[in-house]
Amino acid sequence: MRIERIDVFEGPNVYCLRPTVRMLLDLGPWDRRETIEVPGFNEALLKLLPGLADHHCSRGHPGGFLERLREGTWFGHVVEHVALELQARSGANVRYGRTRRWSGSVFAVVFEHDGPLGGRAAAEAAVEVVRRLLDGRAGEAAQAVERVAEAVRRERLGPSTAAILREARRRGIPVRRLGGSLLELGYGVHRRRVWATVTDRSSAVAVDLACDKALTKEVLRAAGVPVPEGVLVEDESSAVRAFFTLGAPVAVKPAAGNQGRGVAVGLANEAAVRQAYARAREAAAGGPVLVERHVPGHSYRVLVVDGEVVAAARRIPPFVVGDGEATVSELVDRLNADPRRGEGHERSLTRVALDEVALETLARQGLAPDGVPPRGARVWLRDSANLSTGGSAVDATGELHPRVAEACRRAARAVGLDVAGVDIVARTVARPLEETGGAVIEVNACPGLRMHLDPDRGEPRAVARAIVESLFGQGDGRIPIAAVTGTNGKTTVTRLLAHILETDGRVVGTAYTGGVRVAGEQVAEGDTTGPRSARLVLSDPRVQAAVLETARGGILRGGLGFDACDVAVITNIGPDHLGQDGLETVEDVVWVKSLLADVTRRDGWLVLNADDPLAASVAEGRERRVAWVTLGDGRAVARRPGDALACLRDGWLRLETEDGEQPLLLLADVPLARGGALPFQAANALAAAAAAWALGVPAARIAAALRTFGDDANPGRFTVRRAGGVTVIVDYGHNGPAWEAALGAARRLARGQLWGVVGVPGDRRDDLILAAGRVAGRLCDRLVIKEDRDRRGRAPGETAALLRAGARAAGMPEERIEMVPDEVEALRAALQRAADGDAVIVFYEELEPVLGLIDAFAAEGARRPPLAVR
Asked: Is 280 helix (H, G, I), strand (E, B) or coil?
C-alpha cells in the first residue's frame, strides 16, 4: 500500500465546495480485497478508533460505515474514513469523503480537511494506521494517531481569530488564512487583513505605543484618563527606591509585555519588590521595568471597537477550593481536567501551571503543592487575572457605568487603536472611577476575545461581529468576478472582457494564459490560470473587478482560488486532455468545467455556448440565469424565463434581455472577427459582451470596447502579420477543434498555398494527436511538423510521427510534409519556402521567439527564392 501523490485543495474543487485532500493511493496486493477477508481487522480498527462506529458513510445514518465494514468494504474506503476520524477526534469539523478507482490498483481517496497541514498529516497517518493494522502492529498504529492529533492542534486557530473567521463566513465575506493567525478577508479593493485582533486599520504607531506601558500612561494622563502613579526603573536599587517613594503596596511589571508575564501586584515589602523586579526584568528581556502604586479592586477588561464599547468582563485570578482531603497539586489537576481548559489559547480557558509564580503565591498563603487546604478554603494560584495564565472571566458589560465607558473610549482614542482592550482595576465599574479610586492600568493592542466569547459566567458577547462590522459595515467584501473556462477561446474572452470592463472605467485584475495583469500592469508571467494566480489578483487592493481564466489543469490539481463568482463563461467543450488526470470521456471534461457553474452566485449568470451541446448541458439542473451565445439568429435557442441571448442577426451583434433587444454593433466593425472572416472570434466577442452585460456594463460601452480590441490586445490568438508577400498567422491552438477553426479561417486569407507549422503537447492521447494530424492534412497544402520542447513523457519524434500519420491518413502526400523538430527552425523553413500570396500559420509553444523571427523576415524586405520541399 503506497501513496503516489497528495493534493491539498484549499477552496472549492470538483469533489466538494469545501477544502479537501485528494490522495492517489496504490493498494498494491490489497486491491480488490475486503475487510472481512482479514481476521480481526475490523475489531482492531474500532478499538483504536471507536468514533468510526458513528460514521454515516453512504448509508446516510449513524453506523452506516460500521455496516459496510461488517459486510466487507475495500481498504481505500477504510483509509478515507480513518483520515476523517483522525481529524475529528482532534476537534476538526469534517464530514465529506469519497473514494473511487483512479487507474489500475490506484484509488483517489478524497476527504475534507480543516487545515492543509492537518489534512496532509491525516492522509499519511491513515495509510500508516491501516497498513500497521493489516500487519498486526496495532501499537505502532496508535503512534500515528497521536501524530495527527498534534498536527491538527498546532494548526488550529486561537479562539479570537477563529471567532472572526466564523463571523466573516456567517456574513458571506470571503476569508482565507494566510498563515499563523493572519486572515485575509474580502477581495480586491475591499480586502482587509486581521492578525488575531490587530487589523490593517491599526497603525504601527498606536500598536507600538500600547506596547510601551510607561509612555501609554503619560498619553492617557494627558487625555484626562485616571492612571496609577508609577516610576520607570532600570535596576533593582531604583525599583526599591521607587517602592519607598510610592509607598506600599506596589505593582511591578515589564514596561513592555503582554499576557501577564512578569507581573506582580500587592507587594508590601522590599524583599518582595526585589524578587518581583528580577522576574519582570527577565520577562522584559533585560528591558525597563515599571513600578506602580497598587490600585485595590477587581481586574476588568473593556473591549473598545471603532470607538465604541462592545463588551466588558471581570477577570478572576485562578484559584482552587479545598475539600479537606486533596492536596493543592491534586486540586489543580482537577481544575485542569475541565475540558474547556487547554494549552495556550487553544480553548476558552488555559491550564494553570504550578510554576515559580504559583509557588510564591501559595507560600504567601502558607501553603505548598503537597499541602491540604481546609474544606471551603479558597486558595489563590496567582495574583494576575490574565486568562493566558489560567484566569477566568465573568461578563460585566451590563454593569458598566456610562462615565467608565467614556473613560475607556477616551483611552482607546488617545492611543489611536481601532480595537483596544482597556484594563481597569476598580472595586466596581458600576460607579465612576474617580469615586472608587479606580484607574486604567494599560491599553492592549491585540486584546484576546475569549473572555467575552465564552465567559465563565454571564452572557457571551458578539465581539467578533463588532470587529468584522468595523471593517466592512454591512458589505460582504466582494468585487465582481467573472470566471472563464472552456476548451478553446478562454484567453481571448478573458482579455476582451477585461478590456470592456476597463473601458467602463474599472480597475481590472486579469489572470490568463500568458500572465497576470492588474490596472494594465503585467505583474506575473507564464500560464497563470490556476488558483494561485486567482488569489494574486483578488488579493490586490487596487482591483475593482476580476476576470479569471480558469483552466482544467488548475481546477483538477488545485481547485479554485475563489469561493464564488458572479459570472461563469463556458466557451465550448471538446475532447482535449482526455487520458489526463483521470479524464476519460468528454462528459468528464463537462464535470470539471461545470464547477464554475456550481460556484456562481444565486443571483449571478452563466454564459453558455448554445451552439455547443456539451457547453449548453451545463445549464441542466442548475437554478441560474443563463445568457446564451449563438452565431445564429437565436430563434432556435430554448430560453427559460429570465434568460438572455447574445446572437448574430442581420450582420449585427445583438443582446436580447427581459428589457428588450439591444443592437451592439455590426460584425464588420469588430476588428477581432476581421469583418466576419473569423467566426470563432465572433463567438468569443459575443461571449465577452454577454458577460460584460451581466456585470452591469451599458451596451454602448460594450460596443465601444469591441471596436477597439484588435491583434495588439490579443497577441498569439490568430495574430496576423506580413513578412514580405507572405501572410503569417500566429495561433495558440493545440487540439483538433481549434485547428479546424483556425485553419478554415487561414484558408480564406491565403491567395496561394496554406502552410501549416504544427505541433501538439505530448501528453495528449494518441487518438487525439492523430485526429489533429488529420485536420492539418485535410486543410493545409503543406506541413512542417515540429515538436514542443517539453515532450511531456514522449520519446523524441514520437508526437511528430503521430501527427504525420494523421496527415497522411487525410490524404496529404509524403512530399508535402517536412519534419523539423525545433519550433523556430520549423517556422523559418516554412517562411523560406513560401511564395508571395501564400499564408503560413504556426501553432506555437513559445510566442516571443516566433514573433521575433517573423519580424526579422519582415525587416529583410527581399526574401530568398523558394526552395524545393524535401
From this structure: helix
